[in-house]
Design goal:
Layout: H1 8-20, H2 23-30, H3 34-48, H4 64-85, E1 94-101, H5 102-119, E2 123-130, E3 143-147, E4 156-168, H6 171-174, E5 188-191, H7 197-204, H8 210-213, E6 216-218, H9 221-229, E7 234-238, H10 243-247, E8 260-269, H11 276-292
Parallel strand pairs: 1-2, 1-3, 5-6, 5-7
Antiparallel strand pairs: 3-8, 4-7, 4-8
Pfam families: HTH_1 (PF00126), LysR_substrate (PF03466)
Protein name: LysR family transcriptional regulator
Domain HTH lysR-type: 6-63
């Protein structure tokens, strides 16, 4: 069946204006004149028979229907650009700079990268782990992944996965706990970079939140996790991020029915960046991987 679509030039112009919020900025990005972009917008609205932006054109705010169309257009253009790249000769590996939270980078992202390299053998992904408190906006990147944080509006942002947090211990520690939530005699571990998560789990388990005040605290989550692996106590941890440890039996979740919702990981990239098409391919791969293999253990 033949598709009924407006002119591609008009779609490109509209997507750029809706994304950057300005005809002038969109014209600069596309390398055309202000007038050319305005004409394409007018042509598209005439083709659709409906306005795409609110009446106050100074701010170029898309209507609700326009926002939906802009999102679909942006995703389609990213996919098209990625497909076109497959026809371009590759002279040397292309570098994609990715920054991500340290624990997530080490325990989820890097272990999954071999699968990305199979699909994109000429791409060199360089992962830069970030620690809490580092100003990521000062670091050059093609793709950024953040935990529990909204990304700035000039980035195309997508949801990657949301954490589920459970209590984890060494198997020999779990054997002493019994079937009901009981942490008597078990030290608790917590990272100062994840405040409140242990307390929320204790509340969900109907245990005294006062136990959280007695927890051993560490400067970073991955250090607290190492203490748990060493048998020093129990830790509230994101199941998706440490699923490999559960799969190998190095840690167990004695009270699996008790979990709390954690924050969402969001991935962002600049749609007009030097490696925008490649970043879009990486985003699509990461979302697909998180859907197919979110890191949740079987059973």
């Amino acid at each position: 069946m033949r598709r009924s679509l407006p002119p591609l030039k008009a779609i490109v112009a509209f997507e750029a204006v809706a994304r950057v919020g300005s005809v002038t900025a969109a014209a600069d990005e596309l390398g055309v004149t202000h007038s050319a972009v305005s004409k394409q917008l007018a042509a598209l609205e005439a083709w659709l028979g409906a306005p795409l932006f609110e009446s106050n054109r100074r701010h170029m705010t898309a209507t609700p229907s326009g926002l939906r169309m802009a999102g679909a257009a942006g995703a389609a253009l990213d996919l098209l650009a990625s497909s076109v790249e497959a026809f371009m000769p590759v002279r040397e590996p292309r570098v994609l700079e990715v920054i991500a939270p340290a624990t997530f980078a080490m325990r989820w992202l890097i272990p999954h990268l071999p699968a990305f390299e199979v699909e994109f053998p000429h791409v060199d992904v360089r992962v830069r782990p970030l620690h809490t408190g580092e100003e990521w906006r000062d670091i050059p990147f093609d793709v950024v992944i953040r935990r529990g944080e909204a990304l700035q509006s000039d980035l195309r942002s997508v949801g990657l996965l949301r954490e589920e947090i459970g209590l984890l211990v060494r198997p020999e520690v779990a054997a002493s706990l019994g079937g009901r939530p009981n942490l008597a005699g078990v030290p608790l571990l917590e990272a100062v970079t994840r405040p409140g998560e242990l307390a929320r789990w204790l509340i969900a388990a109907d245990l005294s939140v006062d136990h959280a005040t007695e927890a051993l605290r560490f400067g970073h989550f991955y250090i607290a996790l190492e203490a748990c692996l060493a048998g020093q106590g129990a830790i509230a941890a994101p199941i998706e991020v440490v699923s490999d440890l559960l799969a190998r039996g190095e840690l167990v979740e004695p009270f699996r029915a008790i979990r709390i919702a954690g924050p969402e990981y969001r991935l962002g990239y600049a749609p007009a960046g030097a490696h925008a098409a490649l970043a879009a391919s990486f985003a699509e791969w990461a979302m697909r991987t998180a859907t197919i293999d979110p890191g949740l253990p079987e059973g």
